[in-house]
Amino acid sequence: MNMKRTPLLAAAFVPGLLAAQGLYFPPVVGNTWETVDPASLGWCTEQLPPLLQLLEDNDTKAFILLKDGRIALEHYFGTFTQDSSWYWASAGKSLTAFLVGMAQEDGLVDIHAPSSTYLGTGWTSLTPEQEQAITVRHQLTMTTGLDDSGDTDCTDPQCFTYLAAPGTRWSYHNAAYTMLDGVIEGGTGQNLNNYLQSNLTQPTGIVGLYLPVGSNNIFFSKARSMARFGLLAQNHGSWNGTPILADEDYFMAMTTPSQSMNPAYGYLWWLNGDQGYMVPGVQFLFSGTLMPNAPQGTYNALGKNGQFINVVPDQGLVLVRMGNAPNNGNTVPYLFNDEIWERLNALICGATGTNLAAAPHALRLQHDQAQDGLTLQVPEAMAQGQLQIVDALGRVVWAQHLRSTRMVIDLHRLPAGSYRCVLHTATGRVVEGFVKQ
Description:
Blueprint: H1 48-57, E1 60-67, E2 70-76, E3 85-87, H2 92-105, H3 116-119, H4 128-132, H5 136-141, H6 174-178, H7 180-188, H8 192-204, E4 208-213, E5 216-222, H9 223-234, E6 238-239, E7 242-243, H10 248-254, E8 270-271, E9 299-303, E10 307-312, E11 317-323, H11 333-348, E12 364-368, E13 373-377, E14 386-390, E15 396-401, E16 406-410, E17 417-425, E18 428-436
Antiparallel strand pairs: 1-2, 1-11, 3-5, 4-5, 6-7, 8-9, 9-10, 10-11, 12-13, 13-16, 14-15, 14-17, 17-18
Helix pairs in contact: 1-11, 2-7
């Protein structure tokens, strides 16, 4: 472990640690963790059952809510327990960004250097000049410019082809991100698990393991380790006075907009601002907030099938959810995350989001199974919104600007399954589901 990661004697003078004075940190070793009664916080505890019912109905395995570091809510469902491990999926991207920052602080990685510095030349099929232009920072910000129209998980050189100049196009490209594992290993000379254990596990108690799944390394841990990482992120990279990632500039860049194309994305963290957002699979900037019911300023680690870490520094909250995709099969992860916040706001006794939702039944759908067409109708006030159709895995399969109160959408190219229409308007977002048989 780098010697710089030692307890601070004057934490009050270090930016980002002022908030730590009121934070509780569980011991690094053992299973002790202080709790706080939601009733003592003045929360409306009669609203807890609807929240838990939402979680249970949607195949949740673990849910934890921290308030100032203490456990306010901790629930496990089915056979899943406090000792069960689960995968983080793409929520692990945020952990990777944190590890890259630590490696840079150790002088082992430079995010402004070409990625080939650590991966070796020929990791793509680009020309030498094109490959040299891609930096580690481009990988962190999803702006490599590599073509993502094919297999977005393939990490073979022939799968990395040129589409645009680095830094000119934002696209959620999983394979380009995956190569950051090689950047960390090439820069540090250690494999991911060794670097994590010596630099993160020992000082924080975040215990987990990267396991190979296809071409990816997926992080697995218990729910409490996920909560520990959220608490570490809440305190700007310091654990109970010990700086784990002391580079405040890197941390701020990681959790604020990293480029102008998608203001809702930092360094592999999703951001809940109000300057618009892009989503995987579509080249369009939607207006409004990624999760209107969540507090503005929240930064989020989001993964497939609903693996969530939401960090709300100004409210002292960390939310963790592990589980399968929702039972109804048609909830996009970030939409389901927003539903959790809607119930959580009622429990906390106040709306913390930034937008008011549009009228819940303002979007009307009529699916003609025989003609395989979907007729959509909205009030006049909503006729200028942005419309998406998303599948059960959260992928955007169709998107268009809505210019009238009525639209007929041809569904012939969509396979059978559950879908949701998501309409984004100036007054909020409306979601309605349908099933194609």
